[in-house]
TrEMBL record:
<keyword id="KW-0963">Cytoplasm</keyword>
<dbReference type="GO" id="GO:0019301">
    <property type="term" value="P:rhamnose catabolic process"/>
</dbReference>
<comment type="pathway">
    <text>Carbohydrate degradation; L-rhamnose degradation; glycerone phosphate from L-rhamnose: step 3/3.</text>
</comment>
<dbReference type="GO" id="GO:0005829">
    <property type="term" value="C:cytosol"/>
</dbReference>
<dbReference type="GO" id="GO:0008994">
    <property type="term" value="F:rhamnulose-1-phosphate aldolase activity"/>
</dbReference>
<dbReference type="InterPro" id="IPR036409">
    <property type="entry name" value="Aldolase_II/adducin_N_sf"/>
</dbReference>
<comment type="similarity">
    <text>Belongs to the aldolase class II family. RhaD subfamily.</text>
</comment>
<feature type="active site">
    <location>
        <position position="116"/>
    </location>
</feature>
<dbReference type="GO" id="GO:0019323">
    <property type="term" value="P:pentose catabolic process"/>
</dbReference>
<dbReference type="InterPro" id="IPR001303">
    <property type="entry name" value="Aldolase_II/adducin_N"/>
</dbReference>
<feature type="binding site">
    <location>
        <position position="140"/>
    </location>
    <ligand>
        <name>Zn(2+)</name>
    </ligand>
</feature>
<feature type="binding site">
    <location>
        <position position="142"/>
    </location>
    <ligand>
        <name>Zn(2+)</name>
    </ligand>
</feature>
<keyword id="KW-0862">Zinc</keyword>
<feature type="domain" description="Class II aldolase/adducin N-terminal">
    <location>
        <begin position="10"/>
        <end position="238"/>
    </location>
</feature>
<keyword id="KW-0479">Metal-binding</keyword>
<keyword id="KW-0456">Lyase</keyword>
<protein>
    <recommendedName>
        <fullName>Rhamnulose-1-phosphate aldolase</fullName>
        <ecNumber>4.1.2.19</ecNumber>
    </recommendedName>
</protein>
Length: 272
């Protein structure tokens, strides 16, 4: 099968197109990676070429040796993925040591995988292990309201989570672990990769202060849905604060009742 006709390509394109229309991807902002199952790689093998050059990942990910990833390109625009996936996206293979990658399809007019590749792959390695291989998506976007809140809310997991949980009753059901907050850091390097991975051990959502949001998911719907849910909570929060702040809210007892009724493992460490 032509890789452009594959179901996983359709899912990848739908996420990038919808997310651009949401306003989360100005210019070349944001990046998306999908760990492609071996059976799906096999189904598109006629579209693939040999690795021409092995290049350093910038991180070491032995847990991903031999894996394939569909990745957005560095400097490429999310809004163009739909128009020409072969120019804006690549399928890459990881070498047997987890130190280098090689392109086997895409980026036909040149380019490299996303500048956030070290962070994406470190988090794929972690989540693959933690979820018995179920997690396949890592996704980073620049959602406006969420970024705005990082200038106003205290930059710690507890206060940030509590504020967003309070913004919509079902949000604690969507991210019951809460979310982690990384302070301002230089994008694209190993330091932000390490800080994000540390938080991803407990969470599925990590805020990058004054930059954006970083999420994971088993599939495209889950990753997009998580980004959408957190950004919507942030939008409500911005509106509430613009209207003069909370006059009433969801209480700790309310959250505990919700957790019981919905049978969710709410991270009550973040509630006190
Ligand atoms: O421009 O969003 O974090 C791509 C990015 C880097
Ligand atoms: Zn970014």
């Amino acid at each position: 099968m032509d890789i452009k006709a594959a179901k996983f390509m359709e899912g990848f394109i739908r996420l990038t197109a919808d997310a651009f229309k949401k306003g989360w991807h100005e210019r070349n902002g944001g990046n998306l990676t999908y760990r492609v199952p071996a059976s799906e790689v096999e189904s598109v093998k006629d579209s693939l070429h040999e690795v021409k050059e092995w290049l350093p990942i910038g991180n070491t990910v032995p847990g991903l040796a031999g894996e394939y990833f569909l990745v957005t390109g560095s400097g490429k625009y999310m809004r163009n993925v739909e128009l020409a996936p072969e120019e804006n996206v690549a399928l890459i293979k990881i070498d047997e040591k987890g130190e280098n990658y090689g392109i086997v399809w895409g980026l036909v007019k040149g380019g490299r995988p996303t500048s956030e590749l070290p962070t994406h792959l470190a988090n794929h390695e972690l989540k693959k292990k933690l979820t018995d291989g179920k997690n396949r998506i890592i996704y980073h976007a620049h959602p406006t309201n969420l970024i705005a809140l990082t200038f106003v809310l205290p930059l710690n997991d507890k206060e940030f989570t509590r504020e967003l949980w309070e913004m919509a009753t079902e949000d604690p059901v969507i991210f019951p672990e809460g979310l982690g907050v990384v302070p301002w850091m230089v994008p694209g390097g190993k330091a932000i990769a390490d800080a994000s991975t540390k938080l991803m051990e407990k969470y599925r959502v990590v805020v990058w202060a004054h930059h954006g949001l970083f999420v994971c998911g088993d599939d495209f719907d889950e990753a997009f849905g998580l980004m959408d849910t957190v950004e919507k909570a942030a939008e409500i929060c911005v509106k509430v604060r613009s209207m003069g702040g909370k006059k009433q809210t969801i209480t700790k007892e309310n959250f505990l009742d919700l957790a019981k009724e919905f049978n969710i493992d709410l991270n009550t460490d973040l509630l006190d």
